[in-house]
Amino acid sequence: MEAISGRKTIQEIAADHAIHPIQVSQWKKQLLDGASELFTRGKKSKDKEEGQAKEAELFQQIGKLQMELEWLKKTALHSLRVPPAETHAAK
Fold first, then answer.
1. Which own/partner pairs from 20-24 qualify as long-range (CB within 8 Å, at least 24 positions apart)?
2. What is the value of pTM for the model shown?
3. For residues 48 and 69, what is the distance between their CA atoms, to the nearest angstrom?
4. Residue 30 φ then ψ, to 5°
5. Could you tell me what percent of the chain has a pLDDT over 90?
6. CB count in 10 Å sphere of residue 5
7. Are 24 and 14 in contact (CB under 8 A)?
8. Which range of residues forms the domain containing residue 38?
9. Which residue stretches of the chain are H helix?
10. ∠ at Cα 22 (20, 26), nearest 5°?
11. CA gap 10, 23 in Å, rounded
């Protein structure tokens, strides 16, 4: 934060904390590059939860539709079948 505020130079900050100035520069760059994520992280998490809930709802609907399709197939096949008594009489 000191590096971003500009109150001290990178060399002063590095000397105060006994680290290399390049490390301070890298941390400053990382913070500036990722600062927007600090404020949107909560929103992303909420969006992710909503997406997962919607996905679960859609999978449930797919399962229901698959069951209905199987039932319709079985009832359609059953209604198209000729009863065994009629097959013998037709011969």
1. none
2. 0.42
3. 31
4. -60, -40
5. 31
6. 7
7. yes
8. 2-90
9. 2-5, 10-17, 21-80, 84-90
10. 125
11. 9
Q: Which amino acid is at 56?
A: A
Q: Which residue in the block uniquely carries the two structure tokens 């039932």?
A: 71
Tens digit of pLDDT for each residue in 26-62? Answer: 988 888 888 777 777 666 777 788 999 999 999 999 9
Count of domains for the chain: 1
Handedness of CA 69, 74, 75, 81 (dihedral sign): positive
How far is the C-alpha of 63 from the C-alpha of 76, rounded, in Å?
20
Both structure tokens of 75: 């009832």
- What is the token pair recorded at 80? 């198209």
**Which tokens in the block code for residue 61?**
């609907």
